[in-house]
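Record format v2
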Amino acid sequence: MSQPTPKIRIMPGAQTDLSAATYQIDNETHTLGNALRWMLMKNPKVEFCGYSAPHPSESHIQIRIQMYDNLSSLTALVRALDDLDSLFESIEDAYKASLEHDNIAVWDEGR
Amino acid sequence: MAPTPESKKYNPRLHVGLLEERVTNVSSTDFPGHYPDEDHSWDLTKFKKRLQVKIQKLSARSIEFDLVGVDASIANALRRILIAEVPTIAIEYVYVWNNTSVMVDEVFSHRLGMIPLNVDPALLEMKENSSDQATDRNTIVFKLQIECTRNNSAPRDSTDSAVLYINSEVLAAHLQWVPQGEQAEVFAARPPAPTIPEIVLIKLRPGQAIEMEMHAVKGLGKEHAKFSPVATASYRLLPHIILDDANPVPSHLADRFRDCFSPRVINVDPRTKKVSVDKRGVRGETMSREVLRHPDLAKFVKLARVRDHFIFNVESEGPYEPQRLPLEAIRVMREKISVLKSAAEALRALGDPEGDIQMADT
């Protein structure tokens, strides 16, 4: 029990070349799970990707990735995380631009 | 070339259809391999071209903004983070020295936790463990010391408890901040206090007194709803009302047709009685589907929503200005991504030689 839970680990049953593997991510929920699943599915080399939150009282999710051409699912996972970050970066930039340049209707809610 | 979402005709790739008793084409289909010979792989340039963020309305407490061109999983991640993972400060520990009010300690303590505080969470650190030592970097101390007494100068025929007694109501404003260590300087610009001073916490009568010390800490909404920075954070899809130019609403039905929708959604030309959809007003349509209940009107219209046009509504109920909340949510999300990325990279480095990977034991 002394060892801290790793943020990510590979569940038993994965292919040795990691072309198909289930990853367990500690302390994450649908928030990251669904967004990551979506980004992985945008990768044409991904044969299948799905995620689940196995039990509501356990704070981890599992994400299953299967690849075409015996590629590494871990590499695909890292790439998806990169892409997801650039996605949110562009949302951030667009939001800041709107905040600065757009003509925003300001109204008084009375409190 | 995919048509723009504003294209008038119903397009199952872009629109969610609304029938009387069911919705159609709910899920997005823009994945590689879904349509033969079409490339739907992730492309940042394409995404940026389609992406649109526009703040529509802003007040001191709420913001409405449009997020266009993203998948529901992205919009939902932002919404979930706004509710559960943007940190705020709330009272967590209450030390009761005296409480002779009608409310028991536990119930009153719970109530104290709910008070929204104006402390900028960026100025405080989060306690790693609840057993961690309280310091001036992670805890803000409030004091509440109040006693209700008779007001001897009240008129004899008065029945109003506010006149008869002194301190008959304990308000949020009665919480006194007790600066610790360097806090007097750090929080000088905006002394910690409840955001709304006039919240009634409890009513007292002569002889009843309360004396308490409270420790406020930084926390997340997923721990307890009192740490949630928002009153509501929600989104809905942009309504899309499709009229058929080849089959227009006849002039004698125009007014009845308009009345089936929310105000300012449908325009009827006063002279020609020509029916059109108001481009701005359509945002306010409630999608009641009233028009589909009238067979003579329903045949002129198709109801839909734009699948990737999210109208966010966020009400701030804490220290954050509403326009800052989405940025905080994005910051939290990017932090999550970077933490997981370094963990995944470490895992990859671990298994690199010989492609030998370490699998978990269980």
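Confidence is low (pLDDT under 50) at residues 1-6 of chain B.
The longest strand of chain B covers residues 301-316.
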